[in-house]
Design brief:
Helix content is 12%, strand content 50%. By secondary structure, it is mainly β.
């Protein structure tokens, strides 16, 4: 397990997970302030494609007024925040900012010899189209789209996330959500995280590999929040991502790592 406490333990993964932990409230007839936060522990792969694991903080928070909101979370691949700034209900959209975890001080000796990848800063935008009361009263389905672009030159290019989610409340105390999503990575992004340069091949013993763009992964996230008393409760999540294409074919993954990337976390939550 990686014990490096100097680099972020999580940098933005699938930002769509933000709403998995802090599900948006249903439309209110009288606008009011509402919110949610969760604090706990999160176990994730040490880096993209790794078979080793690391444990870090699970943090999620959301503050909303009417249809406006800002939410932030630390998740499997980084830290991110986004805000809905549209002045009308129906479509949610706005800016995204975050920090993407790089790769440094890893357990795997061969991957370590490839050199460090610095943490990166990302900026982008999201759009979310919710549909309420779809199958039952007070449930919600949504189509989601989000784009990240590295603005720190760590991995030029970007990531496009697309997918859908479904939330329902089996009881007044229990909220469940399923999120299915995929991500498309640019050539430069995949080469940064999954490529092996000639110098890296010489240092590590891995074959030289040029990673092109394409679908990076598909995944499914399940989240649950159970209210115990007075707004206090427990929140848990499990995420399974399957690396595909050039990401999965990289020797970093196929020889030294794992195509299946599992993250899971548990925390204490409060809703108001």
């Amino acid at each position: 397990m990686n014990r490096n406490s100097h680099s972020p333990l999580v940098a933005l993964v699938a930002p769509l997970l933000l709403t998995g932990l802090a599900a948006p409230a249903m439309a209110q007839s009288d606008p009011r302030i509402s919110g949610f936060f969760a604090l706990g522990a999160l176990s994730t792969p040490e880096y993209q494609g790794s078979s080793d694991r690391t444990v870090g903080p699970l943090i999620a928070a959301r503050l909303a007024y009417d249809t406006y909101y800002i939410e932030t979370a630390t998740l499997a691949g980084g830290f991110g925040a986004r805000a809905n700034i549209l002045p009308w209900s129906g479509i949610e959209a706005g800016p995204v900012l975050g920090q993407r975890r790089g790769r440094s001080d890893v357990e795997n000796e061969r991957v370590k010899r490839l050199g460090d990848i610095d943490d990166g800063t990302i900026a982008g935008a999201f759009m979310r189209l919710p549909f309420r009361d779809v199958l039952t009263r007070r449930d919600e389905a949504a189509i989601e789209l989000e784009y990240h672009h590295d603005v720190s030159s760590t991995a030029s290019g970007g990531l496009l996330f697309f997918g859908g989610s479904y939330r329902f409340d089996p009881t007044e105390r229990l909220r469940l959500r399923a999120i299915a999503l995929a991500s498309y990575a640019s050539d430069s992004y995949n080469q940064t995280f999954f490529g092996v340069t000639r110098a890296g091949a010489t240092a590590s013993g891995l074959p030289e590999y040029k990673a092109g763009g394409g679908i990076r992964d598909v995944g499914l996230t399940l989240t649950a929040n159970y209210t115990i008393s007075g707004g206090w409760g427990v929140t848990g999540l499990v995420t399974l991502r399957r690396l595909l294409g050039d990401a999965a074919d990289s020797p970093i993954v196929s020889r030294e790592g794992e195509e299946n990337q599992i993250s899971f976390g548990l925390g204490l939550s409060y809703r108001f």
